[in-house]
Amino acid sequence: MSALGSKWKPIIVMVIKDRTLRFGEIAARISVISRKVLTDQLREMEEDHLVTRQEFKELPPRVEYRLTEKGLALLPILSLLEEWEREFDFTEKKLEEII
Amino acid sequence: MSALGSKWKPIIVMVIKDRTLRFGEIAARISVISRKVLTDQLREMEEDHLVTRQEFKELPPRVEYRLTEKGLALLPILSLLEEWEREFDFTEKKLEEII
Does residue A62 sit within a domain? Predict the structure, then answer.
């Protein structure tokens, strides 16, 4: 799980999903992340073969990201994790209300 | 996934599994973790309702940990993550050998 050793990477994987997104589109969808942190996370994810990065030599330059097969295989597992968190956070909040 | 925001917590969950383990037993099974870090991680996991901690007033004192229902529900998801990592690390290593 070391390839996921940050709170941002699972979120970035779930945001990209099965489509191609430009850097700015990813940044806009995770508005709380700074561009510097997002850049660093995406670079690490590229090194870990979770995403591919394609640069188009246009003006202004365009950079697009996609999940690799490895990244795509992670999507259903992250959905289970999300479901797990939703289920138990909900239960905990209900319990707190009762107590 | 914030309850898992560390590389150690998934490992600790997988080590405890469906049994009751004493602090020293967990520490022995994850020999690379310091007792200080393990103590801190277990305390956070208790706050996040992933584990329960039971202290027995004996001499020497005995402290036992179990996964909660929330922690137990995480086990099958972590197994999938392990499988995912094994599968793709293997593929990457094979590719590197070929290239």
Answer: yes
